[in-house]
Amino acid sequence: MARNVEFDEQLAVSKAMDVFWRKGYNGTTMRDLTEAMGINSSSLYNTIGDKHELFIRSIKHYTETRMKEALKQLEPIKSPIKAIEKFIQSSVYVITNEPNSCMAIKTTFEVATTDEQVQKIIKADNEFTYNLLNGLVEKAMQKGEITVSQDAAMLTDYIINHFSGWHEFFIIHKDKTRIKNMATFLIKQINQ
């Protein structure tokens, strides 16, 4: 009688996510995934499904983890402007220290333009970031911490737009100082 092998699906998805994050969807082979997960391809198909389904679960895991981390990091900060600054600085840290860049941004350009399921996940991630920052911008305006604009939605879009540009810039130039200087300048603009 064959013995049952314990399978930790969450751990397997996390390991697969790391492979997709490093190599991208198109650059990842089934062999890459099964080796990283420590299972054979039939076990993968029987428990999770095909490569696409595993990718969907991986990108969901990535975005959900990121959302939880953002809430946990910002929750104790009482000043809305300080929370915005922390969010910007945390984004800069990830951009300049994460060896594989942002999985959501990489996925946006590689897969989301043609894959409706992936596009929905990336859109939900973007909407979460927008709503989180927009709420902070509105509170900062109400408290008089932001006076540069009275249009919270426009200012939120303005802030968010910087992140993808910084990711691209860092991928090309690998210059932490310039990214940090751009972030400092953005924070100064918001604080006017």
TrEMBL record:
<keyword id="KW-0805">Transcription regulation</keyword>
<dbReference type="GO" id="GO:0003677">
    <property type="term" value="F:DNA binding"/>
</dbReference>
<feature type="domain" description="HTH tetR-type">
    <location>
        <begin position="6"/>
        <end position="66"/>
    </location>
</feature>
<protein>
    <submittedName>
        <fullName>TetR/AcrR family transcriptional regulator</fullName>
    </submittedName>
</protein>
<dbReference type="InterPro" id="IPR001647">
    <property type="entry name" value="HTH_TetR"/>
</dbReference>
<dbReference type="InterPro" id="IPR036271">
    <property type="entry name" value="Tet_transcr_reg_TetR-rel_C_sf"/>
</dbReference>
<dbReference type="InterPro" id="IPR011075">
    <property type="entry name" value="TetR_C"/>
</dbReference>
<keyword id="KW-0238">DNA-binding</keyword>
<dbReference type="Pfam" id="PF00440">
    <property type="entry name" value="TetR_N"/>
</dbReference>
<keyword id="KW-0804">Transcription</keyword>
<dbReference type="InterPro" id="IPR009057">
    <property type="entry name" value="Homeodomain-like_sf"/>
</dbReference>
<feature type="DNA-binding region" description="H-T-H motif">
    <location>
        <begin position="29"/>
        <end position="48"/>
    </location>
</feature>
<dbReference type="Pfam" id="PF16925">
    <property type="entry name" value="TetR_C_13"/>
</dbReference>
